[in-house]
C-alpha cells in the first residue's frame, strides 16, 4: 500500500473509532447494556402469537366455527394489522387463507379462561372473500 493511502486510511479509521467512542463515553442516562425496554413476563392483557395461531375462529352472527388462525400480519411498527384465517376445505384440503383486519377481531375469555376469537362474518362470507396471498417481501 502506498504511504499516502495508508495515512489517509489511518486517518479515516482513527476518526471513525474516536467518533464511535463518543457514544460509549457519554452517559445519556440510559441503560448500560443497550436494552432500554424489555419484558420479564407477558402482560396480563397480552397474547403470544402461539396463543392465537391455530386457534378456532367463531362467527358472531351464526355462532359457528368459520376457520382457524394460520398467521398474523405485523407492520413495520410492530403492530398486528391483520389475522390470516384458513377457511373452507376439509382437514386442510381445499382451504384458502383470508386476511381480516385486526380491528375486526374480538378476543375474549370464556368461562374456562380460554381465549375465544370471534369475527363479525359467517362461513359463506369468508368463503367468498378474496384469497390472501403472502407477497413474501421482508
From TrEMBL:
Stretches assigned to the PRC-barrel domain: 45-122
Top-level division of the source organism's lineage: Bacteria
Stretch forming the signal peptide: 1-26
InterPro entries xref list: PRC-brl_dom, PRC_barrel-like_sf
Keywords: Signal
Protein's name according to its UniProt entry: PRC-barrel domain-containing protein
Species assigned in the record: Aquisalimonas asiatica
Amino acid at each position: 500500500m502506498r504511504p499516502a493511502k495508508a495515512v489517509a486510511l489511518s486517518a479515516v479509521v482513527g476518526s471513525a473509532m474516536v467518533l464511535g467512542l463518543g457514544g460509549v463515553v457519554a452517559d445519556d442516562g440510559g441503560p448500560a447494556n443497550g436494552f432500554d425496554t424489555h419484558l420479564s413476563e407477558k402482560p396480563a392483557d397480552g397474547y403470544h402469537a402461539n396463543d392465537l395461531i391455530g386457534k378456532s375462529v367463531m362467527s358472531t352472527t351464526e355462532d359457528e366455527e368459520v376457520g382457524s388462525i394460520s398467521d398474523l400480519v405485523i407492520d413495520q411498527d410492530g403492530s398486528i394489522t391483520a389475522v390470516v384465517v384458513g377457511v373452507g376445505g376439509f382437514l386442510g384440503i381445499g382451504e384458502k387463507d383470508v386476511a381480516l383486519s385486526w380491528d375486526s377481531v374480538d378476543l375474549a375469555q370464556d368461562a374456562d379462561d380460554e381465549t375465544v376469537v370471534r369475527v363479525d362474518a359467517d362461513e359463506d362470507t369468508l368463503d367468498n372473500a378474496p384469497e390472501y396471498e403472502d407477497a413474501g417481501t421482508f
